[in-house]
Amino acid sequence: MGTEGSTVLEPLWRGLPQLDHSTVSGSATCALPPRFDAVKSARDFTRETLQRWRLEGEFDTVALVVSELVTNALRHGLPALATSPELTSPVRLDLMRWAARLVCAVRDPSGAPPETTTNNCTEYVDFTAESGRGLCLVESFSDGWGWHPLTGMMRGKVVWALFRITPA
Questions:
Q1: How distant, in Å, are the alpha carbons of 22, 106, 128, 165 from that of 100?
Q2: Keyword set for this entry (predicted)?
Q3: Are 28 and 49 in contact (CB under 8 A)?
Q4: What would be the CATH architecture of the domain defined by 2-13+25-164?
Q5: Interval 111-135: pLDDT, tens
Q6: How far is Cα of residue 15 from the mean position of the Cα atoms in its chain?
Q7: What is the structure's pLDDT at 115?
Q8: What is the pLDDT of residues 13-69, one digit of tens each?
Q9: Distance (Å) of CA 159 to CA 53, 65, 86, 110, 151
């Protein structure tokens, strides 16, 4: 499901806070099918990757954010045709590690920007609602997040979240 170090990372750097991409100490990618059970696969992939990188203590927070980003990609980033079996992996999860930072990036085929239900996540958010608060959770649990459209051969967008980590 994942491949260590074989990700084409360059399109993912755009829009991220200033990070020296030459100092990446690990990267892994996972192709996800257009089914909601892919969220569990993304969490499993995240757990395995963080264990390999000896970052198990970061799992709960990172998995929550990964779950939200992948759910949003599946719910809002796929065209209606993406539920057909021909499109086997329209969503990708990339994890990138630096000495003290971790980035989760989720790609989907839609160029539409991600939307929060409020302009500011510090405003009232209905936490009893079944949806509509995912990006506020991403904002709350990560040290920063953003998105950028993909260009050239890669179409769609990347939504990313950055975490400051304490290596073991």
A1: 14, 20, 34, 5
A2: ATP-binding, Kinase, Nucleotide-binding, Serine/threonine-protein kinase, Transferase
A3: yes
A4: 2-Layer Sandwich (3.30)
A5: 888 876 655 565 555 555 555 567 8
A6: 14
A7: 78
A8: 455 555 555 566 788 999 999 888 999 999 999 999 999 999 999 999 999 999 999
A9: 22, 11, 24, 11, 14
